[in-house]
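Example pasted here:
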Amino acid sequence: MYSPFQLSIKFSIYQLTASNGKGHGIHSPFVYDLVAKVLNDKSKYAEFEEIEMLRKQLLNNKTILTVEDFGAGSVKNLTKKRSIQQIAASSLKPKKYAQLLYKLVSYFQPKTILELGTSLGVTTSYLAKANKEAQLMTLEGSDAIAAIAKENFVQLQLQNIDQITGNFDETLDAAIAKLSTIDFAFIDGNHRKEPTLRYFEQLLQNSNENTLFIFDDIHWSKDMEEAWATIRNHPSVTLSIDLFFIGLVFFRKEQKEKQHFTIRF
């Protein structure tokens, strides 16, 4: 994991070198439209307010949970006592990116969505609200955290979410088998190279030419940067977009030549 200082340096370089996010110099009609209609969409949707109210509640909730940790933080401690407040502060995707996921689902209208890493369910709620007709399956390692997320889904009256709890290494294949195809996947559960690449290969089996994979924290560590480089160079990937904190991967067969964009967001 990079230190905050190292990450800030990397982010500064990204801001200086990335495309300006206004579409100029982007020689791809598909990406140009994506920038104009999604990345630059400043709209505030009605659903945003209620989900952000939930986020505030979680950030003020001092209830202590016993958390099983299967991700990159699990090397030393398999269980930890943590407050919901602490989990929310460290694990929830910032509003800017959670709302981007909403806009991406709204734009592409996937019929099936798979999320690796429910956490407390804030990002899941954005995904579910964006297309209430979609079949959304979300995986979480910790029973205690998944239980809180379930309460949050009830509070927001979300009914299109199927939760699966347990170690991804044991639950992902079964989850994929329940989906005829994966139209949209958000991978945010284990920030290590080997598991990330393994999940990518597993998900790839049920992808199609219109599938979108989104990987979280692609510059979080050297390990994750290596994973991201391997993924974007994979023969099946025809287009990738680096937004620094997340990476988008497409498999569009009509894309004749592989393209990679780094866009300021």
Q: What stands out?
A: The first strand starts at residue 64 and ends at 68. Residues 4-17 form the longest helix (14 residues). The chain is about 45% helix and 20% strand.
